[in-house]
Design a protein that fits this description.
single chain; mainly alpha; 2 domains; about 45% helix
């Protein structure tokens, strides 16, 4: 197949595009988001945050919204040939400069410590596993994550699995701890 067979995927302008179908998808998504907010407010007024996060009504709406985002992506791709990045979460902060951007003199940012934490309870029912075996499982997952980070081009200076609190990496202070 050539680009001529699929005009939205060519390197040529499309000309007139009827966007009604795209707008209808956005309207359905907006309505679902309004329903989510109303449901989340209602659930949260009755339950704690953890219970609200796991409420079946909230989870069902999140799944529905995720599917609608995928549908909108597919519609944009089919109609325009674009790969819309509509679901990435990004915080602009309070006007602070982007920590990942090179400094004014062009030097890249310095290394930072990142933490991924888990609260793990003992296995339910009979098991040969102990809580110490969680460290082995996390080590395996850590090795996989290091591989993915390196393949993505990042330099993983060091990594560790710890129990009880985040591993202490010398030279990598946590900004949140400095503020305490």
């Amino acid at each position: 197949m050539t680009d001529a067979d699929h005009p939205p995927h060519s390197d040529r302008p499309l000309g007139h595009v009827d966007a009604r179908d795209l707008h209808a998808s956005v309207d359905r998504l907006a309505q679902a988001l309004h329903t989510y907010v109303d449901t989340a407010v209602g659930v949260r007024s009755e339950f704690g945050a953890t219970e609200a996060d796991e409420d079946p009504r909230v989870l069902a709406l999140e799944a529905r919204i995720a599917a609608m985002n995928a549908e909108l992506y597919d519609r944009v791709h089919a109609a325009l040939g674009m790969h819309a990045d509509l679901t990435t979460l990004a915080w602009d902060g309070d006007g602070a400069p982007d920590a990942d951007a090179p400094s004014g003199d062009g030097t890249p940012p310095t290394a930072e410590a990142f933490h991924l934490g888990f609260v793990v309870g003992p296995p339910s029912g009979p098991s040969d596993l102990t809580m110490d075996s969680v460290l082995d499982l996390l080590d395996g997952g850590g090795e996989e994550l290091v591989t993915r980070l390196v393949e993505a081009g990042f330099d993983v200076v060091e990594w560790a699995t710890s129990r009880g609190e985040p591993a202490d990496f010398e030279g990598f202070e946590d900004d949140d701890e400095d503020d305490r």
